[in-house]
Structures are given as structure tokens and as C-alpha cells.
Amino acid sequence: MKAKTNFKELLLKFLVESTLIVFSVLFALYINEKIDERKKRKLKVHAISTIRNEISENLKIIEGWQQKHQLVLENVNKYLEDESLAQQELFVGDKIVLENFRGNTLAGKLPSSTAWSVVQQSNVMDQFSFEEIYLLSSLYNIQHSGVEASLKVIIGIISSREIHRR
User: Fold this and answer.
1) Which of 32, 58, 59, 129 is most buried per CB count within 10 Å?
2) Is 115 within 8 Å of 121 (Cβ atoms)?
């Protein structure tokens, strides 16, 4: 009878210890998962802040371009209307001096999409909702398309025959 009691006690002890081990491991995994989720939420907050700063900086760049390009367009129109002025200010010998036409640079600093690219490659991307991803992707695509289209138009104007004829 004593062997049977010992066996029952050992089995009960084994079951209790096994259950404690299983629950301990599961609890540790749960805590680890919560810590990872918290880190990802913090990374998302940081990513959104970085993206917001990048978009604000890009807006300043594009607004600067708009002012600069308006002046360039005014110069183009001025030189197209007065050929003698264009001859005096734009040409030195046979060479065209574009600085008088467009200033020191046409585009300057380009808008960036670095923050969004980093987020897309990181493990924080799964923290973003479909709507957030869609909105940010659309925003950066519009930004890229707008910059590309603007540069094509400006290059077209600069390389037009009217600008280069003497």
C-alpha cells in the first residue's frame, strides 16, 4: 500500500512541477511578446515622428522650388520678349551663361523619402495599419511624380529652341 501511495504522491508531484514549468515558460513567452510589442510601438512612434519631419522638410524644399521656378519662368518670359536683353545677359561669346537665366541651381536639394524607405524595410512596418501604409505610399508617390514632372517641364523650357536661338 505504501508503494501505491508513494507512486500517487510522485505522480502528483511530477504533474504539479510539470505544470509549473509549462506555465512558467508560457508566462515568460507572454512577457517577452509584450516587451517586443512595446518596443515596436515605440519604434512606430519614432518612425512617424521622423516621417513627419521628413515630409515637413520636403514641403519647405518644394515651396523653395516653387519660388525659384517662378523666377526662372519670369526670366524665360523676359528673355523671350526682349531678344537684345537675352543677347546681353545670357551669352558670352558663343556660350550661354545659364546662371543669369536660372541662378546658381535649378533644383537644389531634392525631397527625400529616406524615412519611409527605412520604415518599409524594418520590422516596425507590421505596426502600421493598411490605411496608414496606403496614405504614406500615396503621399511619397505623389511627391516623387511631382518632382519628376517639374524637372521635365523645366528642362524642356531650358532646352527649347526659343531659348537657344541667337
Assistant:
1) 58
2) no
Residues shown for the chain = 166
Task: In whole angstroms, give the CA distance from residue 116 to residue 142.
Answer: 14
Q: Half-sphere exposure of 24 toward its Cβ, with a 13 Å CA cutoff?
A: 6
Residue with cell 533644383: 107
pLDDT for the residue 166: 46
Q: What is the CA radius of gyration of the chain?
A: 33
- CB atoms under 10 Å from CB of 91, counted, come to 13
Q: What is the mean pLDDT of residues 9-32?
A: 93
Question: Is 124 in contact with 40 (CB distance < 8 Å)?
Answer: yes
- Whether the per-residue pLDDT at 104 is higher than 60: the answer is no
What band does 121 get if pLDDT is binned at 50, 70 and 90?
Answer: very high
DSSP result, 28-41:
HHHHHHHHHHHHHH
10 Å CB burial of residue 26 (0-12, 13-18, 19+) is: exposed
Q: Grid coordinates standing for 33?
A: 511578446
44 pLDDT more than 50? yes
All three cell numbers of 120, joined, read 518599409
